Amino acid sequence: MHKNTLVTTVGLNKKEYKGAINPPIYNLSTILFPTLKDYYNATQGNSIYNQLNNYHNYSYGTCDNATVYDLAQAISLLEGEDCNTLLYPSGLAALTFSILTVCKTGDHVLISDNAYNPFKKFIDTLSRMNIEVSFYDPIQDIRQYIRKNTTLIMIEAPGSVTFEIPDIKNIVTAAKKNNIITIMDNSWATPLYCQPLKHGVDVSLCSATKYFSGHSDVIMGAITTSNTSLFRKFCNVYERHGLCMSAQSCYLVQRGMRTMAVRLTRHRDTVQQVAKWLEKHPLVQRVLCPALSSFAQYELWQEYFSGVTGLFSIVLNKRYSFEQISYMIDNMRLFGIGASWGGYMSLILPFEIGKIRTITKDNYYDGNYIRIYCGLEEAEDLIEDLHNALTRLEEYA
Ligand SMILES: *Cc1c(COP(=O)(O)O)cnc(C)c1O
Question: I want to staple 367 with a disulfide (CB 3.0 to 4.6 A). Which of 46, 212, 314, 316 is the partner?
């Protein structure tokens, strides 16, 4: 079945819903058992309700909630065969707990230098635990960065703000040779446009806040893997840290998934028009969008991804002041100013690229970097808004 069809029903266990088309939202802390023996059995991993999930005891509401399981199962089915998914309170938590799960004191982690920036800041916590971190240039050969004690490589493809595409297969090959776990942040493409597990990556990770939810009303992360012993490790760390999900949020993300394929098709079509229009604008030096044939890793992008989504960046033709950029952006009609992306509304934000890079500071163009997220509006209207914004910049300058 085509994934676009799958996504409209995936994860629904309709037999359980007494005819309702949508899943119930189970609000629970306590789970009741008919007898004391049933309760004790559940705490030992043998619950009378266990058909729901093999990885938790199903004895208490922190980890055991059917609304949460249904969403996890839906995401698993999109990522590949025989997968398991664990949901986190945010995409960032999915990233940080990936390291806490895989690494111990004395280990070394490699993180892509263009990783989601708040995640890069987690190295402060890791250094207190004596877990070493180093950043790698995603377009260089990974082998030069691997050390004896490297146990984890964090991949992000395309990388944040500048969208470089690493050669996933090369990283996976080097990792397997050295017994290193690989985890890929797939938030940008989602499993609809890229399946990291099929390329040999051990764990696929998404910020469900973005396209899964699609409405800027939920924060959530997910990890998916077909490696059962690794998944069990994720579950153990999860339980010990007292992580849990709200059923309400899981319901909202499931609901978002029903329209995810149509939304992504819309983002894809819009970005293709907007990015091509920007490429011709005299104030734009570069458009950093992997789907453009002018993009440096266009071929790698074609190899790993089946579609472009709503987020890309531009580099302006020179350096403009904060006041000039503000004058351009503050007066836009459709593009909102704010963090995150993946919802229905277009967003725009400038980035100081030098400040969020550690080892690749010299790789960049001189000129302001502006990240653009195309929402669900008509491309024509977005182009008009961008045209007016760039005209304001020109007039001010
Ligand atoms: C937004 C984002 C995250 C973090 O997701 P939250 O759910 O907002 O915590 C992680 N990775 C990438 C690539 C992102 O863009």
Answer: 316
Asked if 393 contacts 324 with a C-beta cutoff of 8 angstroms, the reply is yes
Residue in 156, 160, 207 to alter for ligand 1 test, most ligand atoms within 8 A of Cβ: 207
Q: DSSP secondary-structure letter at 159?
A: P
| Angle, helices 260-279/379-396, rounded to nearest 10 degrees | 40
Query: 348 CA to middle of ligand 1, Å?
Result: 16
Q: Tell me which residue has its CA closest to atom 7 in ligand 1.
A: 91
**Local confidence pLDDT in tens for the 397 residues of the chain:** 899 999 999 988 888 899 999 999 999 999 999 999 999 999 888 888 866 667 877 888 888 899 999 999 999 999 999 999 999 999 999 999 999 999 999 999 999 999 999 999 999 999 999 999 999 999 999 999 999 999 999 999 999 999 999 999 999 999 999 999 999 999 999 999 999 999 999 999 999 999 999 999 999 999 999 999 999 999 999 999 999 999 999 999 999 999 999 999 999 999 999 999 999 999 999 999 999 999 999 999 999 999 999 999 999 999 999 999 999 999 999 999 999 999 999 999 999 999 999 999 888 999 999 999 999 999 999 999 999 999 999 998 6
Q: Nearest Cα to 208, choosing from 63, 19, 68?
A: 68
Does the bond joining 89 to the residue before it have cis omega, within 30 degrees of 0? Answer: no
Q: Angle 322-330/379-396 helices, nearest 10 degrees?
A: 150
Q: What is the 187 CA–ligand 1 centroid distance (Å)?
A: 7
- What residue has token string 């010990």? 240
Ligand 1 neighbourhood includes 91 CB (under 6 angstroms): yes
Measured in angstroms, how far is the CA atom of residue 394 from the centroid of ligand 1? 33
| 103 in Cβ contact with 109 (< 8 Å) | yes
170's enclosing H/E stretch is: helix 168-177
